[in-house]
Amino acid sequence: MDIDKIQNKLRHFASERDWEQFHSPKNLSMALAGEAGELIEHFQWISEDDSYNLSEVKLQEVSEEIADVQIYLLRLADILKIDLENAIEEKMLLNAKKYPADKVRGSNKKYTEY
Question: By C-alpha distance, which of 63, 62, 77 is closest to 32?
């Protein structure tokens, strides 16, 4: 995924519609949370096994919600001038320290619990 290319497309999309005025960090984070909620709705009340075996129609709907979440996330990072690739790399290093494989393998405990 070329993050810069997608962010440029999203910037252009918003600009064509004069939506920059609405794309504050507050509004984008709220929209992101809303889209994450819409994604969750697809899995609410189904079994864990069923969540792996979605129909083609349901999988397409889930795909669209995941795209919406990603779009808002990329837009928010762009507005805040966060280098998302670098932020992910740094967070993965931090998580590796918080969750050393030899201590947490097979455990779902939070790092504060071990």
Answer: 77
